[in-house]
Amino acid sequence: MQTIGIRQVSGDLIAAAAERGEVLGITNGRVLAGVLMPLTTKTVEHLLDQNLTRIVQNIREGEREAAAGDSVSLDDLMNEEPRPTSRRAPERVTIRGLSGARISAAADAREALVVTHAGAAIALLIPVTLQWVEQLVDRNLSRIRYSIERGEREIAAGGHMPTLDELLEESQSASDAADVSAAPPRAPLSPPAGVLEERAIGIKIVSDDVHGVDRLVGVVTDMLARTVHGPIEMPLPDWDRGKVLAKILDLIGDLQARLIPEHEHLTGVGLGVGGHVHRGTIINSPNASWHKFPLASLIRQRLDVPVVLENDANSLAVRERFLGSVDDESMVVILITDRGVGSALVLNGQVFRGAHGMAGELGHIPVETGVRGSTTKCRCQSSGCLEAAAAPYSITRTLKSEGVKEGYETTGNGQGGVVHQTLVHAGEALGRAVATLINVFNPTTIVLYGPQPLVGMPRTFRGTEGPISPGAASVYMSAMTQAAHAHAFSTGAEECKFVVRQADDTDSAAAAAACVIQQFAPLAGKYALSPQK
């Protein structure tokens, strides 16, 4: 990119850059202040095409509204007050009017400038902001990192050592391919060759009262968090910290042995666990009775790769975003396991962890009151928690206290029985908690992971859900959705989409791997699977 000073800008220079298909860097005191993009015929056609696409979409929406009987007359549209909008047309500035102060003001407002000459718009000037520079540096650091790693492997293998220009050109080509926006349906993108050789290890720490076998489950994944080796299970005799650490290191060794020598390379290790996790330390895990256990740093000391420790619900949210399974910028992931209830919050496309990593502890918000609340004890030793009312272990505990020997899985949805009443109460408790999430965060989607006997088969729905099939899931989920709509404010629940899924230990281990990929292999994230529409 050619750079010129502000006072050197002229109509002839911009016209010459347009003919070459180039952009110009505008400097102010030897500092890059903006990027000048000539408005060629091709650029104008592209902008026109974008607006035509929006117009066509509006026409189609109008046709659908007319078919539904919701159309309005032309007179009504003409008399309608203009809709407020935060957008405004870019300011116009002549070449002579360009100055460092004018560009700086546009940068502060995060707006572009239309540069005019002889009364015609000839270029678009994009101010260089700190955010723009940070994104540019982050993208290039990712490319350079992978280029260096590939070079190191080529040297170690004694093969061809490409030049730096070749490496950067290959990475740029791959990056450009990832940025191309094609019309749906979009085919999944493929990572560049170097990324195809990278692997991540994911390990889920499982506390299992139902089957009586606490264990570790580990997998090896590619850079799309898809399992390529494993799973491998390793039982845990007890929750002694030293013994668990030794078992995790043994499992990592077994998984590393699955890697194909000279063809697969370990990028990092991800660990998933239920409980409060912050900066690589398990602050509090009621499942394992751990407090302030710096597990990630203890493992990192014994390995030469990054280690990431994450809450199990958060890791599933990361994998949802990573794979593009749910293409929403604002969603909630709720995880119901035999041992409890957790959740993860995705706000503006990022997992929100709170000031100290405790955000999303849905299972420990109080939903029980009165006599029932005071007698419903949670594993955290508090009373009235959601987990103590809606989790599978609490439902089973309640049924046993009522003299019901069979589990809730075998029940029909007959009205009035103890099992039916217990499931309705549990579902309503979860629904009140869901309404709280909707009222506070207004998500577009809630993804609910849970055991099939309790939440039913995978599906997507909106609104209240009636009977889905005979059994516990129909009772539990119907009570949940009805309570959520009853307690959610305004249209929050109506506009929220529910997605029901199941996740086994292998999925959770792969989700842990996605966390280390996201943090330490940023280039790989550009090649995640396209959203499934």
Q: Overview of this structure, please?
A:
The chain has 533 residues and is α/β, with parallel strands linked by helices. The protein has four domains: 2-64 and 89-128, no CATH class; 132-180; 196-317 and 507-525, ATPase, nucleotide binding domain (Nucleotidyltransferase, domain 5), CATH 3.30.420; 329-443 and 451-502, Nucleotidyltransferase, domain 5, CATH 3.30.420.40. It has 18 helices and 20 strands. The protein has helices at 11-20, 41-67, 74-79, 100-108, 130-157, 164-179, 193-196, 241-256, 295-300, 312-323, 370-375, 387-390, 392-401, 418-441, 452-455, 472-487, 505-520, 522-525; strands at 2-5, 24-28, 31-38, 91-94, 113-117, 120-127, 198-206, 215-221, 227-235, 265-273, 276-278, 281-285, 290-293, 307-311, 331-337, 340-347, 350-352, 445-449, 459-462, 497-501. The strands form four sheets. It has a six-stranded mixed β-sheet with strand order 1-2-3-6-5-4. It has a six-stranded mixed β-sheet with strand order 17-16-15-18-20-19. The chain has a five-stranded mixed β-sheet with strand order 9-8-7-10-14. Helix 5 (130-157) crosses helix 6 (164-179), helix 10 (312-323) crosses helix 17 and helix 14 packs parallel to helix 16.
Beta-strand segment tally: 20
Principal-axis shape equals globular
**Largest beta-sheet characterization:** 6 strands, mixed
- What fold name goes in the CATH topology slot of the largest domain? Nucleotidyltransferase, domain 5
CATH architecture classification name of the largest domain: 2-Layer Sandwich
Q: CATH superfamily name of the largest domain? A: ATPase, nucleotide binding domain
**What is Rg?**
28 Å
Strand order of the largest sheet: 1-2-3-6-5-4
Can you count the helices? 18
| Nearest-integer average pLDDT | 76
- What oligomeric state do the depicted chains represent? single chain
**Unreliable runs, pLDDT <50, ≥5 residues?**
170-193, 522-533
Instruction: Give the helix level as a range of percent.
Output: 40-55%
Beginning-to-end CA distance, first to last residue:
39 Å
CATH class of the largest domain: Alpha Beta
Helix-and-strand structural type: alpha/beta
Strand residue content: 15-25%
